[in-house]
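FAQ: What does the model actually see?

It sees only this:
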Amino acid sequence: MHQQIRLRLAEQPTQDTPGAMPSEPIQTDPMEVRRGSLLKLLDTLAGKGYDLRSVGGNGIEGPGEFVFSLDDEDHKLTGECADFLRDQGYRNVRVVKTHLCQVEDRPGGLAECLRELEDSGRFIHEMFVATPREGKVPVQFTTIRTSREGDQEDGTKTAR
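And it is asked to produce this:
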C-alpha cells in the first residue's frame, strides 16, 4: 500500500497560446462529468474485485482527481488496476509512490510518525488514512523535499 492510483473523471481542456507560451488550463465545466461517474468507477473497480484500502481526493466530480490505494503489499495489483482503468477509457491515470506509516491507534501515534518524516527534511503535502488492522492505522503521505536536490520521483515535489 505504498502506492496510490490517481485519475480524473473529467477531462481538463487546455487553451493553446501563441508562440512558445505554455498552455493554460481552463476551468472544467461540471457538465463534462456525468452524474454518478464516481459511483460508476467504484462499481467498475468492485466488479473486478479490487479492494480499496484508502480513498480521497478533491473536486472529484469536477476539475480535481480521485485518489485511492489497494490492499496490495507487493504493488503488482496497483499497476494492473491502473492499466485496467486506462483500458476502460479513464484518462489521466497515474501511479504515485507514497510514504507509509503504520500508526498506533493511541494519543501521539500520528505525531511520532510525522516526527520521523520531519527529521528526513520533508514537508507534508497530502495525507490519506486507510482502514485499520491489528491496532495500527496506515497513513500515507506525499511530501515536498526541502532541498534543491532531486526531482519529483516517488510522489514528492521539490521546494525550490
